[in-house]
Amino acid sequence: MGGAAAGWMNLTLPPGFGYVADNGSFPVDVTSGHVAWTVASLAPGTVAPLGVRLRAPLARGTASAQFTFDYTDGRGSPVVSLVSELTSIEIAPLTEFSPALAVDRSVAEHGDEVLATMYFNNTGSAAARTASANWTLSGDYALIDLSPVTSSTPTANGFEVGWANLAVGPHSLVARLRVVRGLADGLAMPIQVRWTATDGDGSPLPPATLAASVVLGFGYVADNASFPTAVAGRQVTWTVASLAAGSVSWLGVHLRGPVARGTASLRFAFDYTDGRGSAVVSILTGGTLVEIAPVTEFAPALAVDRRSAEDGDEMLATLYFNNTGAASARTASASWALGGHYLLVNLSSGTPSTSTPNGFDVSWADVTVGSHLLVARLRVVRALVDGLAMPIQVRWAATDGNGDALPPVTLNASVDLRAPGAAVELAPATLGVVSGSSFAVNVTLRNTGSRPATGWLNVTLSANLAYDSDNGTLVRKLEGGKVTWTVASLRAGSTIYLAVRFRASGTGGSSSLRFTFDFTDGRGSPVGSIVSPPASVEIAGLIAPFPIGAAGVGLALLAVAVAAGIIALRRRRGRGELVIDDVFVVNDGGVLLAHRSSSLVQYQDQDILVGMFKVVQEFVKDSFSKGVDEDMKGLEFGERRIMIEKGQHHFIAVVHRGSESAELRERVRKVSEEIDAKFGDTLARWKGLMEQVQGIANLLPQVWGRQE
Question: pTM for this structure?
Fold first, then answer.
C-alpha cells in the first residue's frame, strides 16, 4: 500500500469568471485568475470531494475549466501532476427584473379614476421568453383600460396580462381603474400584482408580489382635543359635554389629503343648546381653502451590462430614474464619478453633459411622470491591474413641482478589470562560483492575470558576468551587457521556465542578477514592469596555470593549484593506506548539493572548492578532448587524489589519500546511479530549493562502505 499524498489542487479560472466559495476544508489561496487548495495529507484509499462555486460573466458564450493536482509523497520524491477532464461551460446571458408598482394618488372617492403603473424594467442582458402579471383588485376597482394598449384576461378577482420576448430595457403598464367601493371612509383599497417571468432559455425567474393601496377620500387622522370623536362616512363629530361661559376650547385636526392636484374647502359646524330643553342652534365657521399639491417621487437605479472588461472595451451603464409620483419634477440631475477608470463615449438620445474632474454631470428640467432612463457608453481606460474593481457612482438629486429638494440618492455599480499580471522568480538566490567557470540561474516567468501578456524579459550584466546560453526557444537579443528575450504571448495562468547560463570572469568579487519583465496586454495599453528579487553571485579568483609547455604541464600546474587550495582549507593528514576525506555532490551548474566529511574540521568555503573541481573538469575537456565530450575520472597530485563520477545532472567528487581501489570506484558508481534514480527528475528542472535535494546527503556514507 502506498503512503499518504500531499500537494496542491489548482484551478485557472476562465476569463471573466470569479471564485465564490467551495465545500471543502482545505486552505484556499485565491489570486487573480487562479485558485489553489493546499492538501496537507491525503491518506491511501481516501476520497476528498471538492465542490467549487464560480461566478460567471454576463455575456453569452462558452468556457472550460480543468483542475490540476500536483502531489508528492513528502519524502523528497519529484512532484507528479494529474490533470482532470476538461469541463465545458455554456454561459447563458442573464435576465433580470426589478418590478415596482405605483399609484397616482393615495386617496380617492367612489367613482374616481386611479392610475396604477407597473414598472418591469429588464435590467439584464437578455430578453425574457415570457412574462405575466396577475392583478388582484379585491372588488374595490373595475378595469377601464390599459396603456399601452395590451390585451388582458378577466379573472375572478381582477385580470391577467401576458408578454412574450420581453426585450432588455424599460417597460411599464398603466392600468386605469375606477373606484367602485363607497360608504366606507378611510377604507384601504389594496391592489396586488403577482409578477412571473422566464429567462431566455425558458427557466423560471424568482416571482415577485407587488402591492399598493388607495384610501377612500380625505381621511381623518387625529386631533389634539379630549372630546369624544365619532367618524362616520365623510363626517367627523366631536361631542362637547360642557363649555363654561367665557371659556375657550382649542381643537386642531390632522387630516390626510389626496395625491391629485386640486383645491378643497373645509367648514366646521357647531350645533349647541343650553341643556335645558332649548332648541339647537348651529353656527358655521368660515371656509378654509386647502390647496392640494401632488407628490413627486423617484426610485432611481443603476445597472451595467457586464461584470468584467478589459482596457479599451466599451460598456453600457444605464441609469433608470422613473418618476413614480403624480407630478413632474421641476429639476433633476445626475453627477457621474468614474474614478479614472472610464471615459465617456456618448449618452443615449444625444443628452448633453458637462465634464467634471472625475466624470460628468447631466441635468433635466420638468421630468414628467413615467419611466425614464439614460444610457452612458463608457470606454475602459485602466490597464494591467488584473481583478481591480472599477466603481461607477451616480449622485442623483431632484426637486418636486414646487422646487423643493427631494431626498438625494447615491447609486453604485462596479466592473472588474481583466488584464495580464506578471511575476518573475530566480533560483538559487545565492551562488558561489570561480572566475572562469559557468553557472546556471533558473528563471520562472508567470502570468498571474486573467488575460494574455506580451513583452520582453531583460537582464543587464555587470562587467564580470557574461551571457553563455539558455535552454529556451524565445527570440533572444544581445546588446552590450544587456540580454533581451521576446515573449510574443504568455497565456493567462501559464508559466515559462528558462535556465540561463552565465560565465564569471575577473579576479573575484560580488555581483547581482535582476531580471525585468516589461509587458503589456497587446491592446495599446502602457507598458508595465515587474522586477525579480536579486540573485547574489560571489566570484572567487582562480590561480591560472602558467602559459608555457604542453597542455599536460598546464594541467599539472592547475592541479597543483587545486591541491594547494585543498591543503589550505583542510588540516593535513598522515600518509597511509586508502583514506576517504570528503565526498561532494554538485549539479551540472556547479552548485553544491551535498557534502559529507570524515573529519570534524569543515571546509570554510565549500562552494569555491567545488567550483575548482568544475573548472578542472572543463579545462581537461578543452585541452585534451578536442571535440570529444569525455568526463574526467579523477586527478592525482601528491598524496591527495580526487575521484570524479559523472551522473545525468550531477557529479560526485571524492577526495582521498592512498591508492584508488576498484571497490571504491564501484561504491561511488552505485551512489551516482541511486542519485539518478531518486533525484534525476528533480535535478533536471531544479530551481535551487535545497529541501528538494536534502536526501542526497543521506546516500553519501555508502562511499565509505556504510549505510545510514
Answer: 0.48
